[in-house]
Design goal:
By secondary structure, this protein is an alpha+beta fold. It contains six helices and four strands, in the order αααβαββααβ. The protein has one domain. A hairpin with a 5-residue loop joins strand 2 and strand 3. Helix 2 packs antiparallel against helix 3 and helix 3 packs across helix 6.
């Protein structure tokens, strides 16, 4: 009888830890959205300042050298791990995990179907809360992520290729899924 009771307690303990309550889902989804927005705002405001100061010639090197440190600083500030992941890499820092790639592909399918994209909150393999949200291409992103001779100049393409020799993060249209915000909450 004791063995059954202990076994039942262990099962209930593990099952309680493997699901999120509605309150947790809401709380961490709100936090995830706030952190993703703060990170986007920090990166894009500085990037736009560089674009105004010197165009892609200043903005591309800025992204190369400063995007990761800014993201790391915000990760530390919010006690999370913030990552931008994409299926079309410009930087190896943005290489997706299998799960991130699956989510990117799902978001791309949802956009193709004309449906609304929603953030995802789930427990990861370590039972930590993990937030994902789509990164959508905006019109001003196309200067560096668009199509050559359409929204991106040959000069900008050359700057990108010099800075990122293995870049494949171009060819996007406004509204495309560029990748995901991947935010792991520390336990």
């Amino acid at each position: 009888m004791k063995k059954i009771l202990i076994f039942t307690m262990l099962i209930s303990l593990f099952s309680c830890n493997s699901e999120l309550s509605e309150k947790e889902k809401l709380e961490y989804t709100v936090k995830g959205k706030e952190i993703a927005k703060a990170t986007f705002d920090a990166l894009s405001s500085q990037l736009m300042a560089k674009m105004k100061a010197g165009g892609p010639a200043e903005a591309v090197p800025f992204c190369n050298l400063k995007a990761a440190p800014i993201t790391k600083q915000l990760s530390e500030k919010h006690n999370v791990v913030i990552k931008r992941a994409s299926d079309k890499l410009r930087s190896c820092d943005n290489e997706p995990t299998e799960r991130e790639l699956e989510i990117i592909n799902n978001y791309q399918n949802i956009v193709a179907e004309g449906k609304e994209l929603k953030p995802i909150l789930e427990l990861d393999s370590t039972n930590a809360k993990h937030f994902y949200a789509p990164i959508i291409v905006k019109a001003n992103c196309l200067v560096c992520h668009g199509k050559v001779n359409e929204t991106m100049s040959v000069k900008t393409d050359s700057i990108i290729k010099l800075t990122y020799p293995f870049d494949i993060a171009t060819g996007y249209n406004e509204g495309d899924v560029r990748g995901v915000w991947s935010i792991a909450f520390n336990k």
